[in-house]
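Everyone, study these two lines:
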Amino acid sequence: MTTATSAVTSTGPMRGIRIVDFSIALTGPYAAALLSDQGASVVKVERPGFGDIARWIGVSVGGMSALFQTCNRGKRSIALDLNSEQGRDIARQLIDQADVVIQNFRPGVMDKLGLGYDTVRGDRTDLIYVSLSGFGPTGPYATKGAYDTVIQAYGGLGASQADIETGEPRFLQQVAADKITAMYAVQAITAALFARERGDHGQHVELSMLDSVVSFLWADAAGNEVMLDSDLSMPSSFTGSFKPFRFADGWGICTPTSDADFAGMCRALDVDGYDDPRVAGIVARRSNAALVNEIMLRVRAAAATMTTAEVMARFEAHNVPAGVVLSPAALSSDAHVQAIGLLEDSVHPTAGRLRQPRHPAQFSGTPAALSGGAPTLGQHTDELLGELGCDATAIAALRTSGAVS
């Protein structure tokens, strides 16, 4: 078990990259946290007294929420009043030292503060400035509020998860739109840094949650919308009919996509009919959905009489892709999860014991690592001001004025 706030000597591929993170909640902060895992040095700018709203959402121990810890690990926090000229001046100094700036306020907010891209880049041709928003900087929805569920609704996630029988939309019970956007943001930032390394200089990267969710969804769940000449004989999402299997003591999933998968699933559970020419091949199964459904009903009925262990053993013996349904709580005791070290334990000085997934990308030459504990509000204000050249007297004066805390 490691100490979550212990200094990390980075070997990651982003080491040496300096990021100033003005973002709040999940999208920008999570993107910056992933880059921090990869070695980037991240300064988180928060408002005095309250900080990032993520500090106050969800499960919390010792004043540290799980959401804030996950999305802000390894960062240094400075509390700045961006409504004061002194606070804005310090922000500009931090930006002057940065490679990347990340912000996720509504379009125009940073410009009004004098911290927008056109203002702060000055002669910094190498600055990469990332603006994240709900609907993008233009169009009739540009200034519309955009919480995750709003984007899940507009972007199609709610409709894609709709109940097949009633058509009632269902939302993923997680902040999916934010996390999808964060991952696109990480890729975009890395791409912009790569372009800069090749001599293309810095640039302004604009990314909306709506763009991200639609791009993510349309890869596999908008078939009829992609193929405009479709006869509409199949649903847009080919995974829409996938349902969990009920076992005698739990739940699982089997996805018989290939011919071998389908035949293996039936053989594993002693269900006949899989060699019928009408269902033996994937093309035939597309044309005989009723017969496939009848066979699947018998498969599910057979699975319901067996334990999870028995069904999984049978599927493994017939090389059928399948898995058990695990909760996050149950995941830590899974043999594979333990064998690969997927979850890492650490101790945070205020939140206590933590368990978090390791950084997902495994780099053989420049390994990434969880970058430590999330900071308390303004924990590094004095340290960062000192790096900007402020002495104790100047720092005290800034605190007295309320520009920092």
